[in-house]
Amino acid sequence: MSFISNADHVALREGVYNNVHGNLNIVHNTFYGKKRHRELEIGDAPDLLPIMDPKRKRRRREKDLKDGIEVIQSQELKLTIEIGSGPGYFLHAGETRGRAVIVKVFNAGPTMREQLESTVALSKGLLHPNVLRIEGASSPESLSHFIVYESAHWKTAAGPLAAALKDDLTRSITLGFKMIAGLSSGMNHLSVQGVLLASLGAENFDIFLDINDRFLISINPHIAAEMDVGEDRRPEDNTTRSWDVFNVLCSKVSFISRHLDRMLNGCSFRF
């Protein structure tokens, strides 16, 4: 059955067709703008395919940072509050694409990009419930360099532990056991995954706590620190070192929490 025959300049929905001879059955919607015309001859219809706008291609999110980490643009981030700092970086709570995140912003300097890439190299392959997961990072061309992590509620265990010591002894004991279990599990994962811990100390780790009381380890390596599973290093050496770091981390967190507890109670305290 012919819907259109021997017609000229026929407008259907958003398409315009000229010099129609014979039968033309329209069975799909076209995607041409109202101001855009195209002449259609018999036999052309099967070849009509949507053409992606080159601008849309350029707007596609980059998925690679030489190591599979997604690139996140600075304009996609909203920083809400500073929550801590470490050697060469500051930590902020923030948001991106409607979800809460932690953002590590590196201080300006000649080694800031190298420090970022060293951190990503150590953390990108780690998948464990007690290791803070990287969600993305800035591009090499970015004016500011940062890493975006999954969200956690506190910077370190010291804050909630100090609050619990002041208000709820039972909770402080519960958090203490969760800290030991979480940190020991996370450090063991780092060891068996081949993270070289010989050059790392307690200062190379941040300990976070999420809203479910899950303790999370974040690594902040020195520039020279790298993943290494060389044949000349015995696995038990790295395991021993991981327990040494674990003990120092627990002592450090406990020390800071006691210090904060005394501050909360109005007592003076000397280091």
TrEMBL record:
<dbReference type="InterPro" id="IPR011009">
    <property type="entry name" value="Kinase-like_dom_sf"/>
</dbReference>
<protein>
    <recommendedName>
        <fullName>Protein kinase domain-containing protein</fullName>
    </recommendedName>
</protein>
